[in-house]
Amino acid sequence: MVEETSFLTADGYKRLRAELEHLKTVRRQEVAEMIQSAKEEGDISENAGYDQAKEEQAFLEGRIMTLERILRTAKIIEENGPADRVGLGSHVTVVEIEDGRRSSPETYRIVGSTEAYPAEGRISNESPLGEALIGRSVGEKVAVSTPGGEIYFEITSIS
């Protein structure tokens, strides 16, 4: 089975590594103590605290496995500075064009799906806008298909 590459910024890699370390060293111990405490309350067959602790353990172990896979397959996005084409790691400023009007500029960083967080300006290279921007240059207009119809953007800068 071929694992999919996880594209991460250096900061994103460090954040995920720190989260994994915390889960393995601190959170695992906390959950083990929750399970032990629930066991000490007696019959575990009707013990809601025990059931909740076991669910927490399952979630924790799943998250640990996910983080280990992401970090194992990680490819760090290089900071290349100004570029003539949009790529992973690029900061791209765009304006939306609607009925000849241009919106205020918005700047996004193109990142891998693991780090995407549009509210903070990080969009995935796999998102409709990210896909439309990859490989494009300043001055180019791109169309993004949405459920409400196409939206048009113009690239005003890349860094």
What this model shows, in words?
The structure is a single chain. With 159 residues, this protein is an alpha/beta fold. The chain has 2 domains: 6-76, Orthogonal Bundle (Helix Hairpins), CATH 1.10.287; 91-158, Transcription elongation factor, GreA/GreB, C-terminal domain (Chitinase A, domain 3, Roll). Helix content is 39%, strand content 26%. The chain is built from 3 helices and 8 strands, in the order E-H-H-E-E-E-E-E-H-E-E. The protein has helices at residues 10-40, 48-72, 128-133; strands at residues 6-8, 74-76, 91-98, 101-102, 106-111, 122-124, 141-146, 149-158. Strands 3, 4, 5, 6, 7 and 8 form a 6-stranded mixed β-sheet that branches. Strands 1-2 form a two-stranded parallel sheet. Strand 7 (141-146) and strand 8 form a beta hairpin. Helix 1 packs antiparallel against helix 2. The longest helix has 31 residues, at 10-40. It is elongated. The model has no long low-confidence stretch (mean pLDDT 92).
Determine the mean pLDDT: 92
| Structural class determined from secondary elements | alpha/beta
Specify the CATH class of the largest domain. Mainly Alpha
Order of helices and strands: EHHEEEEEHEE
Q: Identify the CATH homologous superfamily of the largest domain.
A: Transcription elongation factor, GreA/GreB, N-terminal domain
Largest sheet: 6 strands, mixed
Could you tell me the number of beta strands? 8
Identify the overall geometry.
elongated
Strand content: 25-35%
Q: Low-confidence runs (pLDDT<50, min 5 residues)?
A: none
**Contiguous helical run count:** 3
CATH topology of the largest domain: Helix Hairpins
> What is the percent of helical residues?
25-40%
**What's the architecture of the largest domain, going by CATH?**
Orthogonal Bundle
